[in-house]
Amino acid sequence: MQTHTNKKARGISYIVLLCIMTIIFFFTLSNTVLADQNSYEKIKVKAGDSLWSIAEAHQKESANLSKHAFIEWVKNENGLTRDHIIPNQQLVIPVKRK
Questions:
Q1: Is the Cβ–Cβ distance between 54 and 43 less than 8 Å?
Q2: Using CA atoms, how far apart are residues 64 and 58, in angstroms rounded to an integer?
Q3: Residues 49-93: pLDDT tens digits?
Q4: Percent of the chain whose pLDDT exceeds 90
Q5: Where are the domains of the chain?
Q6: 41-98 topology per CATH
């Protein structure tokens, strides 16, 4: 009977430990992403801009990214699922803040 109680207590301990580790991982990851985005330039999309035109204008300032890699980085970091952007939209681009 006591081994059943010990196994149950051990199982609960593992669940609690897993929950604590998940919470710590979440906060660490979210702080890293926020800190990362704060170290990059933010731009406001103008009428007529496209991801390609933004890449052409800023890609030379980025850390050795091709235009395609620049565009993929912008899409990933800004949560874009398509290439569609709109005027006045704020975008984080892979150019270090000065």
A1: yes
A2: 11
A3: 999 999 999 988 876 889 999 999 999 999 999 999 999 999 999
A4: 46
A5: 1-38, 41-98
A6: Membrane-bound Lytic Murein Transglycosylase D; Chain A (3.10.350)
